[in-house]
Amino acid sequence: MADGQSLEEPPKVKKAKGKTPTGPLFTLKKWNAVAMWSWDVECDTCAICRVQVMDACLRCQSDKKQEECIVVWGECNHSFHNCCMQLWIKQNNRCPLCQQEWTVQRFGS
Amino acid sequence: MSHSSTTNGVTTASSSNIQDTPSSSADTQRVQRRKRRRRRESSVTTPPPSKQQKINFPLSSNNHHQHNNHHKTSITTEEVHDMDSRASPNRSVSAPVESNHKISLHGHATRGGGGVANGMKKSGTPKKIVIKNLKARADVQPMEYCKEAWSKLKKAIEAIHSSQPICYSLEELYLAVENSCSHGLAPELYGNLKTECQEHMSVHLPEFNQDNVDEGSYMIIIDRVWVSFCRQMIMIRSIFLYLDRTFAVPHQTLPAIWEMALEQFGDVVSQPKIRDRILRGILAAIHRERCGESADRTLLKSLLRMFVDLQLYQGVFELEFLKETEKLYYNESLRMMRDSEFTLPDYLSHIDKRLSQENDRLIQYLHKTTKKPLILCVEKQLVGEHLQEILDKGFESLLEANRYHELILLYQFFGRFKDGIPLLHIAFGGYIKKSGIAIVSDQERDKQMVQELLELKDKVEKIIQESFQNENKFHQVVRDSFENVINRRQNKPAELVAKYVDTQLRSGNKEWSDEELDRLLDRVMVLFRYIHGKDVFEAFYKKDLAKRLLLGKSASFDAEKSMLLKLKQECGPNFTSKLEGMFKDIELSREMMSSFKQHISTTKRVSGSIDLSVNVLTMGYWPTYTPMEVLLPPEMGFYLDVFKDFYVRKHSGRKLQWQHSLANCVLRVSFDQADKELQVSLFQGLVLLLYNDTDQLTYSYISQATGIIEEELKRTLQSLALNKVSRILLKQPKSFEVNDTDVFTFNRSFKHKLFRIKINQIQMKETQSENIATSERVFQDRQYQVKALVHASDLKKRIESLIERDYIRRNEENTGIYEYIA
């Protein structure tokens, strides 16, 4: 980045119609960037249903509720499909991975 | 007699009831027919043919009974009476008085113009007037009278036979017959008549036995004898009508007069020598006609009707005729099949011609019973015996050349045979497969594969529509054949179909209107339907769709949606849910950008000189891309960080991964001549931005400054330096290969007629690596299913693995059952 920085200096000078050899030749007008988002998780797979957390859990897939299938993080920083976890804590209110008491840290949105 | 003139032995009555065919004495024949039917159920009697003859006989009054087949049994005394009354329209009622003891006057005396009934009826009369005073005159000897009567009749018969005028009135003769019958002398009269006719036949014998005439003349002679026989017998029968009706027809064993005469005639003609001579003549004439010569069809018709009347048609003529026909067409078809000069279209039109000739023959002179066996025989010899040979002779070239007319004929002819159409199906399918495989398996033709397959499909479907009556089974053949063809080669067709759709949906394709495009997509969907490897299609389709969406290259959003809907209908929502997700990502990103712009305008954290827009894609929906790190100028890097903060704050629990290889940008450039805008990839942009500082840079410097990986950077530099129309950088040395020591100089004097210039990425066999990657991904996804399907042992392993991972468990009671664990 250091090189880039030194190179970027000239553009900050006023633009001189491009006729003079020292003027800023190139100006960035428009930039279409692309990013890929994914859940910020330690493990890609939901330990409860064994489906990738980026995909909906099987239940939601078959119910055509892919959109509603969000991810939940516990205080332990482990993450699961929220609907999988809802079922899980009915039996056992502990994180299936670390056995800590399950407390929701945040929901994916 | 006074009101009749005699011409050529035939009485012409002044009555208007004139008919010119022998069948005019309709009711007589009807009786006769009724009797015949009683004896031989199946025999068909048709009235003898009429040619030049013109017989006018007063008894033949019932015009409307000409087509008497419909009411054979409907003769009534009323009709007879009516007829009789008209037979003597102007005659005085007194004529027969002398010979009758009783005179019955019919109640219809007042009917018609002077139509007074003569008292011939003994029954069925509503009124009866008996003249008692005439008893005294009843002593005329019946026997004597009858003798006299017969001598009159005999003279008349002789006159008729010798075509001389009759010297008695027909009325007189008729009465003579009637009176003789009334005196119980009918059997004698019948016997006398029979003997008389028999004798006459023997007069004709020499004519039948002429050896010194040729076939043609012989046939003419026989025909003449037959025609005059018919004419004479009709006349005689009319005179003896009363005898026929009251004696011969009701008689259990004796034939009616007409039939009796026919039997006598038939006895002569049936003699093998005579019969075969006539038969040979007829067959020879037909043969000559089939060979293109002309024939006297009237003569043939007359003789064949004679055969029909004499019961010689089916048993003698038809049998031989069909044999001859079979032989002729057997040889003909064999000759033509072997003759390579004779093409299938020639052959088909030949069959068509032959069939219409034979049909013409049927109408012109053959009897209608021959129709079925004759046509069947011709078709069998010309078509049925050679079904496969005909197809081999050039069916494919007919299809190739779209010879609809010939194909119609072929379809018709083949349709006459049980095996015909199935063979046609097979050959049709064979053609499609052959043509299709040629298209699919030739790698040189990959580019046109889909287009050519679509054209082939249109072509064969047009043929089905035009020539095969749009028969369903043919469409089935098309489907099966295409399915076979398109899956002959693995994956490539699926890939090409996906690419084809991409080409159609991409902007810049102004070839089609919306409706046309939709129709085209429908046609492509049909091809898609045949493809087994739908996952291959999906992978390539998704890759292309991603490009269209990210580069804004989609021609029409509606068309995209419509295509998506088609895929959904075809493969179900699971197939398209991710594709739909891609569209959704683009929409959401657009919304996001407008709120982001609001956000930065309020916080003013970045300068507004760069117009940034970000497409945020959901991982998993989109194809997998390898992220590539680059060194961004600080301003740009900072900008992205601002967006990232904004995004993550908005969506908790998400992380963003930049996909720089997919990004593009617009640069404003000042060349010596003019300012231009360059539309470039982000990588190209990053390289060009380095030239704000200096005009000349080495490869290694650029590489260091941008951090773009070698392969990409080389490609990027090539695109900037090697394209003739968009050469922004000048490369030293001017080779294609890019080396570390190469120097790239900014081309200040760059000229271009456009203001905005798009600099294409070099499609470094874009697909080659990408393509392989896509295919490999498909196979990885597939492998579990494929393996499980192929090997039972693998299936067990898969099950084990599922149990291990607690997806399923074995049923405790029955280990053959697996339970799904929710």
Automatic annotation (TrEMBL), chain A:
RING-type domain location: 57-99
Chain segments carrying region Disordered: 1-21
GO annotation terms (biological process): intracellular signal transduction; proteasome-mediated ubiquitin-dependent protein catabolic process
Alphabetized CDD domains for the sequence: RING-H2_RBX2
Keywords: Acetylation, Cytoplasm, Metal-binding, Nucleus, Transferase, Ubl conjugation pathway, Zinc, Zinc-finger
Signal peptide: none
Chief location: cytoplasm
Subcellular localization(s) per the UniProt record: Cytoplasm; Nucleus
GO MF annotation: an example: ubiquitin protein ligase activity
Pathway assigned to this chain's UniProt record: Protein modification; protein ubiquitination
Family: Belongs to the RING-box family.
Subunit structure: Catalytic component of multiple cullin-5-RING E3 ubiquitin-protein ligase complexes (ECS complexes, also named CRL5 complexes) composed of CUL5, Elongin BC (ELOB and ELOC), RNF7/RBX2 and a variable SOCS box domain-containing protein as substrate-specific recognition component. Also interacts (with lower preference) with CUL1, CUL2, CUL3, CUL4A and CUL4B; additional evidence is however required to confirm this result in vivo. Interacts with UBE2F. Interacts with CSNK2B, the interaction is not affected by phosphorylation by CK2.
Protein name per the record: RING-box protein 2
Native source organism of the sequence: Amphimedon queenslandica (Sponge)
UniProtKB/TrEMBL annotation, chain B:
Cullin family profile domain residues: 492-721
Gene Ontology molecular functions: ubiquitin protein ligase binding
Compositionally biased tracts (Basic residues): 31-40, 64-73
Any one Pfam family match given in the protein's UniProt record, by short name: Cullin_AB
Compositionally biased spans, kind Polar residues: 1-28, 51-61
Pathway the protein contributes to: Protein modification; protein ubiquitination
BP-aspect Gene Ontology terms: ubiquitin-dependent protein catabolic process
UniProt-listed PROSITE patterns: CULLIN_1, CULLIN_2
Region (Disordered): 1-97
Keywords in alphabetical order: Isopeptide bond, Ubl conjugation, Ubl conjugation pathway
Cellular compartments per GO CC: cullin-RING ubiquitin ligase complex
Record family assignment: Belongs to the cullin family.
Protein name, entry field: Cullin family profile domain-containing protein
Biological classification of the source: Eukaryota, Metazoa, Porifera, Demospongiae, Heteroscleromorpha
